[in-house]
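hiii so um. not sure if this is the right channel but i have a protein structure encoded as tokens and i wanna go backwards to a sequence. like what aa goes where. can anyone help
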């Protein structure tokens, strides 16, 4: 009886108002847009008000990740397994790559960074492909990637290719390049494997992270198993998804070295803690559980908060900071906590500032999260994205990004309503998913302050 009633109702719902991932097929491509940081007030439209945009072809996929050092702009295109380098320029137009690196069916580009890993003055590409080799996953380094020509197969040009332990581990869903922690002036790497199961002591889908020092990375040439070169820390709980997010840009221990911040949004296992999420502050140790390797474990504010689905750490004029997203909190409205990692205690999350939406209109606030100094005043602005945000009746997944001024945040304590954010970027079309994976980087050194770079879903080019 119940099934017969639900069947036709469900069909009717799909035919009148399209809700859900299938509807996104109307926007099968992607684009990247750049917005100036100044002014930090009012609102902008994602495409109309951008000072530069790059429109991808359908063959470039619809799920872009962006990375830039201010001089090189790279786009990860995991649904087609490639990374493209785009020219930096003003104005709008097609995304015409200068270079491409490809590994089909590997989700190459799901995570990526541009950095000078070997300190030779030339930029290097580090990129994750979590579906590599039956979802074993891989992370690859291409040194001096500018010199590899216009179109390369990853395997032909990767100096170093590190693979996950076993099928399904999904190494490379997230990565971070950490400022030097070992004293050789070269950065370390932190790589997530959020479905890690394939090591003897690791529970199913507990997830984990691999930490590779610059010394170990320099010694790893060719293709090899990441476990031979890295320290690994894992969650002690089935399905925790540790390594969903990684960051390492703040010093929690005041020893002058950055510490490691790792999120597991599905940590917690009973009716009051299930999927509350956990964030670890790791201060380096042997391979072991994250609980054993960390000085502090921060838990989400209740069941299904998904704390740590996204996180970002930074140091600015106000000190070291860690922002932790809880996109599942408040029945899915979401929120973000800003923590001083020096005074963080283990247990339920305790924050300097908690931003949420008491009106309950957002969806999964914090699913996109980053920070950077958009107005060049020495404090980092906090960028909160809600790609699932619905604008109006039919604006499914239009998405929205909000920017909180760093100087304002420094003066605030306690709960703050999202509506008080100084600046925001709105989507102009359903399924654009504004606010997914925002990046702050100074693309235009002539202008004061950095730029806000956003990937969007976009219609196919005519
Ligand atoms: Ca280099
Ligand atoms: Ca180092
Ligand atoms: Ca430290
Ligand atoms: Ca600022």
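sure thing!! here u go:
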């Amino acid at each position: 009886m119940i099934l017969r009633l639900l069947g036709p109702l469900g069909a009717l719902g799909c035919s009148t108002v399209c809700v859900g991932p299938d509807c996104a097929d109307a926007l099968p491509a992607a684009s990247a847009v750049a917005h100036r940081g100044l002014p930090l007030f009012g609102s902008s439209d994602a495409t109309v008000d951008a000072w530069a945009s790059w429109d991808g072809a359908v063959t470039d996929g619809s799920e872009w990740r962006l990375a830039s050092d201010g001089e090189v702009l790279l786009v990860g295109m995991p649904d087609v397994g490639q990374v493209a380098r785009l020219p930096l320029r003003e104005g709008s137009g097609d995304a015409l790559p200068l270079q491409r690196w490809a590994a089909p069916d590997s989700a190459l580009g799901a995570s990526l960074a541009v950095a000078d890993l070997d300190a030779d003055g030339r930029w290097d590409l580090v990129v994750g492909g979590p579906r590599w080799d039956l979802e074993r996953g891989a992370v690859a380094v291409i040194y001096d990637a500018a010199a590899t020509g216009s179109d390369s197969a990853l395997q032909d040009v990767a100096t170093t290719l590190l693979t996950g332990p076993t099928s399904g581990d999904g190494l490379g869903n997230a990565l971070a390049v950490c400022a030097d922690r070992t004293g050789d002036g070269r950065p370390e790497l932190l790589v997530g494997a959020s479905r890690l199961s394939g090591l003897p002591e690791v529970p199913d889908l507990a997830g984990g992270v691999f930490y590779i020092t610059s010394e170990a990375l320099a010694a790893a040439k060719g293709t090899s198993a990441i476990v031979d070169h890295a320290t690994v820390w894992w969650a002690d709980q089935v399905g925790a998804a540790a390594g969903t997010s990684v960051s390492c840009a703040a010093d929690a221990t005041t020893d002058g070295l950055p510490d490691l911040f790792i999120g597991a949004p599905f940590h917690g296992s009973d009716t009051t803690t299930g999927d509350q999420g956990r964030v670890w502050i790791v201060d380096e140790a042997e391979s072991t559980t994250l609980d054993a390797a960390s000085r502090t474990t921060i838990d989400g504010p209740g069941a299904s908060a998904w704390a740590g689905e996204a996180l970002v750490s930074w140091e600015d004029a106000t000190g070291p900071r860690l922002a932790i997203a809880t996109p599942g909190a408040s029945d899915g409205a979401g929120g973000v906590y800003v923590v001083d990692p020096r005074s963080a205690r283990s247990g339920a999350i305790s924050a300097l500032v908690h931003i949420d939406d008491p009106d309950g209109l957002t969806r999964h606030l914090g699913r996109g999260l980053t920070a950077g100094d958009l107005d060049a005043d020495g404090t980092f602005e906090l960028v909160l994205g809600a790609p699932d945000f619905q604008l109006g009746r039919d604006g499914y997944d239009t998405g929205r990004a909000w920017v909180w001024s760093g100087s304002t945040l420094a003066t605030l304590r306690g709960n703050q309503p999202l509506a008080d954010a100084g600046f925001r970027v709105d989507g102009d079309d359903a399924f654009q998913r504004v606010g997914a994976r925002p990046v702050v980087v100074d693309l235009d050194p002539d202008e004061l302050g950095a730029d806000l770079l956003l990937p969007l879903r976009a219609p196919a080019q005519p």
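oh and Residues 1-17 have pLDDT under 50 and may be disordered.
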